[in-house]
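Why does residue order matter? Because the sequence determines the fold. Keep that principle in mind as you read this record.
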Amino acid sequence: MGKSMGGWRSLGLAWVCCLAWCGAAHAQQAPAPASSVEPAPIVEIPLTGARAAAPRVASNADAWGGVRQGNEPTLSDRVVGYRIDAELDAAHHSVKGSEQLTWRNRSDRAVDRIYLHLYLNAFQNEGSTFFTERSVLDAHGRGSDSVPGKGEWGWIDLKSVQQGNALLKWEFVHPDDGPGTDETVARVDLAEPVPAGGTLTLDIDFLSQLPRVISRTGWWGHFNLVAQWFPKIGVLELPGERGADQLQWNVHEFHYNSEFYADFGQYDVRLTVPSDYTVGAVGALQGPPEQGNGKSTYHFVQGDVHDFAWVAAKDFKTLESNWQGPGSPRVAVRVIYPAEYVASAQPVLKATLDSLDYFSRTLGPYPYRTVTAVVPPFNAEDAGGMEYPTFFTAEGHANIDPQTMDQWNIDFVTIHEFGHGYFYGILASNEFEEPMLDEGINEYWDERMLRDRNQRVLVPDSWLRRAGITPSADVFVTERATAGLSHPFDPLGQNSWDRYSNGSYGTVYARTATAMHDLEARFGRDVMERAMREYYQRWRFRHPSVADLRAVLIDVSGDARTVNRVFDQYVYGTARIDDRVASIVNQEVLPMAGSWVAHGERSERSADEVDDQVDERRAAWRKDHPGAGVNARGPYPWRGTVTVVREGAAVPQRLRVTFADGSREDVRWDDDRRWARFVFTRPTRVVSAELDPDQQILLDENKLNDSRAVKADPSASRRWTADAATLLQSFYALLGTL
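Structure:
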């Protein structure tokens, strides 16, 4: 998923105070419980901290009910259920909803309060955590968004929350110490506690006002992407799950750079829209829509997912196909698109079908019966590049020019958003606290797919192309251009919001993909693929952590030293790499002056005597080898000394030394020395030295200083590829936010 990057806007004290008063008034005006029963004492279950990030301790083996063996009655251990009846007011872009929420208390203690995400309130005013963080992060970041205009804000109003016959109170809370004016998390005090192992049922009425398209939700014209739109319960984590050492509620505010985290469950949703609107949603449609009074009601059901989004748009068209692979059900594939982007429909469909095949083959079978891709219309580009279970939004182009990046863009975005269906959808990591597990690992697997298709990145709109030359770069080489390798401010395992800037958050994509590429280069592609397949099989439907990924990589590779080094340096740390060849010195190995003992006799040679001996031998050699070139072997051997320098973290390196006669020698540099000298005595001199000759260590911030030649060599220009990708940075930075 991408983010809209906003500009700096200050907020007056009076406005903040006004919003704070309104929030308090809202809490006070919530209906009082109708029950006369004295409420049970509040169960003090703490919230995860405002600085929560990637755990270092692996989850218990039985976390989230243990490994899913495939013979259980449901794919996931369903914790929640949502039955929602919703109607779209197309003229006002609002959704009136009635929701019955069921939630199972997995803990061993009674629960007297629960927490609801009200995500749409991030877009109701500038006092939200979302807009507050945007103003700060964009001061150091990459761009600016305008503030919604009048009639373009979005929000969600809780009309009532009822437990049985009791109307419940709620109030807004701020688990991450956000501004008091943020209203994206509500605490609901229950009339009756939910016993250990018991089930809670709440009936909720709400009204959601969609914003003008922002951060992958909202409306434009007759297009409505309805996402983050209903009251959604937080996650109660048990000790031993994702590093938790106690029972805790994991429920974060809607941050500027965060996404979502929720329990698996069952969604049963009925959507009423004008009959001339096209509808697509998470899950499978249950028969044809019901018709009446110019409206149509669509019924979608999907189990074993943790979110629900949908689209309703006028004058949109559909393209449909089917796919089935080993171990997967027959999958209905659907593309919904506007007329102006008809050229994109077939490419999006093909990329989706190809992704189903690749991800099912390399990670595990796709478990659902549907996948729907939506191409947003012109002027609603910010609705593109977003993912939900079985449902994602892609990118549209009016024309697909094979000589431009159009086709590559469509393929990349489609593959990326489909891939989220595995890493965000089925594995369901916590994107608030561990964005690298979704955005970063997904980016890595997407690039593997593109690499396996030999789909390189074209340099856009270059004069070379106009001259008939088509320059391109490897996808992983291009990826490193936006990885922030020279000065990483935040560890990859840092949470999504507590970061130096938008740019630092953006490096989660490229730096994770680059780090995983380099780990793959050390282990081999087969080992890495087996490890990722095991990660998927072990943690599907179970919310893994970074520590769980590390444990799987160690188990499969058998190399704890390498895995721990990578995680300590990049996931939990901010190490950088910059190894370089500092110098090459060649010395002819000549006779030496002085006093020597040979065969029991001491003799002495002066410097002049040595010089005369050398001259005589050289003359004799030239006579015997007429026409010998400067690179030929001579009468004396050569001692070449290559000095390498380490500016950053230690990483296993291979040094390739080439000699004048065309021979070469590879040596390993795998220790913690800040510099090292390697000496070679050979018949000819050293002409060049190169670290990482096979371009396996892409985390190295400067690949141009990896090699050195004694004399200028035009072949060195071939190394431009590793860093010429920086020419793509402006273009690729946009893709890096997807």
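Residues 2-37, 140-144, 714-738 have pLDDT under 50 and may be disordered.
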